[in-house]
Amino acid sequence: MTATMIKEFRLPDLGEGLTESEILSWKVAVGDTVTLNQVIAEVETAKAVVELPSPFAGVVAELHEQPGTVVEVGKPIVSFEVDDAGSSNGGGVSDTRDRSAAGPAGNQSAGNHSSGDRAVVETSTKGSPSTAGAEAVGAPAKREPNLVGYGAVVEHSGRPTRRARGQVQDVKSASSEAPALSEPAAARQAEGDVSERPRSTPPVRKLARDLGINLELVRGTGPGGLITREDVQNFSGATEAPSETQVSAARGERETRTPIKGVRKFTAAAMVQSAFTAPHVTEFLTVDVTATMELLARLKGNKAFDGYKLTPLTIAAKAVLVALRNNPSLNSRWDEASQEIVQFNYVNLGIAAATPRGLTVPNIKDADRLTLRELSTALTELTDTARAGKTSPSELSGGTISITNIGVFGIDAGTPILNPGEAAIVALGAVRKAPWVVNDQLAVRQVMSLSLSFDHRLVDGEQGSRFLADLGAILADPAMVMTMI
Predict the structure, then answer these.
(1) β-strand 424-428 against 441-455: which pairing, if any?
(2) Position 184 in a domain
(3) Is 64 a catalytic residue?
(4) How many domains, the chain?
C-alpha cells in the first residue's frame, strides 16, 4: 500500500516581520482533495488581505484554527495527508507523521519511527516533481521561496509564470487531483476560465458571506467574468451588507463592540506613534486652481491621454513631485537610532486610501521618475488595488512623503497626521467655486485649500512655507513648472 504522511503548514511571515494574521475564511474543508498552490485560505495581516496557496497536493486532514481567529506566525493552521513520495513547495512546512498501513516493516522503512513519532520534513527541492521536470528539460533548479504563500503557480498555457520560472508543472496531473467542479464552475472552465473558484475580490467575497450568497451561483459581469459588488447586490436584491452596528441594533442591543485588529489596529498604533514622536506643524494655503482645472479639461480631450484617468489628484501629485525638487528637506526621515537625518534622493509617493478594511497608505515607488501618463496609471492601479484589499505589504512600506485627498469627501482643510517615518503630508481640499479677486475685480473662480503637516525636527518653518508656496504657485498657474525644472 502507498504510505501517507501528515504534514503541517505553519502560518508564514507574510512580509515586513508581521507577527500575526487573522484567518478570514477557509476555502477548503476537512476531507477535501487539494492540488499544489490551490488557494486554501484567506488571511488578513495588519497591512493586507493575502490568499494562501497549498504547499502540498493531498487531502486536508485538519483545520487547526477557525475563521476569525488571530494566529501567531509559526503556529500550525492546517494539516495535510500526502503521499510519502510527495514534496512541498517551500517554507512554513512542519513535521510529518507516517500514516502507512504497512505494519511494523513499513514503520522501519520510514526511518524506524513509530506512527506517533515526528520527523523533520525535508523542504529541499531535490527530488520534487516540479524540479525533477525542470531538470529533465535542462532548466536550473529554482531556489525555494521564503514564503509558502508565494510559491509556483500552474500556468495553463504550458509556460511557467515569472514567479515559477525554473519549474515545470504537470498540468494534467494537477488537474486529475482537483476536486470535482460544480456546474457553474465547470461552465466557466469550458469557457476558458480554469480558476478553481469564482473570480472576485476580497471585499466582494466578504459582502457575499455577509449576505449568505454562494458565489458559485453568481454570474460575473466584470472583465474576464469578474464578480463585482453590483453583481452580488443585484443577485441578492440588497444594496449593502448589514454592518455590525445594524445587526446589533436589530437584535435590540444597546451597544456594539468590535475587536480592534487588522488594519485598524495597525493604523491606530502608527498614528499614536507618529503623533507623540514627531512634533507636528500644519500650515494652510487657499489657491485659485482655475488654470489647473482648465488644463485638466484640455488633457482629457487630448488623444495622447485617451484611456487615462485624470483627476485633480493626478495634477496635484505631479505638482508635489515638482515642488520637492526645490525643497528636498520635506523628503527625508529622522533616524533616531543612528541620530542621523536621512535625505531621500528618490520619491516614493504615498496616497492615503480609504478602503472597506480601513485607512491604508500604499506608495508609488520612484514616482519622481514618472511622466504624467505613467503617474496617472500608477494612481489608478494603486487605488483599485487598495479598494480590492490586494495591496501587498511591500507597497505599504518605504514611503517618503504622502498625499491625502480629503476633497473627495467635500472637506476643505484639515490637520493630517504624518505617516510614520515621513517628514511631510499634504491634504488636498475640495475644489469649489467661490468669489475671488482677479485684477482687482471680483470673479467666480475655482479654489482649493491645501494643508501641509510636517515634522519640525526635519523641516523649518521657512522650508515648509516655501514648499507650500511653490505647490500653490504650480496649481494656480501650471506654467510655473517651467521655472522649477
Answers:
(1) antiparallel
(2) no
(3) no
(4) 3
Does residue 186 form part of some domain?
Answer: no
- Catalytic pick from 64, 113, 280, 456? 456
Tell me, yes or no, whether 240 and 98 share the same domain. no
Domain residues for the domain of 36 are 4-179
**Nearest to 420, CA basis, from 317, 282, 269:** 269
Query: CA 292 to CA 231: how far, in whole Å?
Result: 37
> What phi and psi, each to the nearest 5 degrees, are found at residue 455?
-85, 115
Distance of alpha carbon 71 from alpha carbon 261, whole angstroms: 12
What is the C-alpha end-to-end distance of the chain, expressed in Å?
A: 75
The pTM of this model reads 0.57
pLDDT tens-digit map of 17-40: 667 888 888 999 999 999 998 999
Per-position b or e across 101-133, b if 16+ CB within 10 A of its CB: eeeeebbeebeeeeeeeeeeeebebeebbbbbe
Query: What string of DSSP letters covers 403-444?
Result: EEEGGGGT-----PPPPTT-SEEEEE---EEEEEEETTEEEE
Query: Could you read off the pLDDT of 437-456 as tens digits, one per residue?
Result: 999 999 999 999 999 999 99
8 Å CB contact between 135 and 145: no
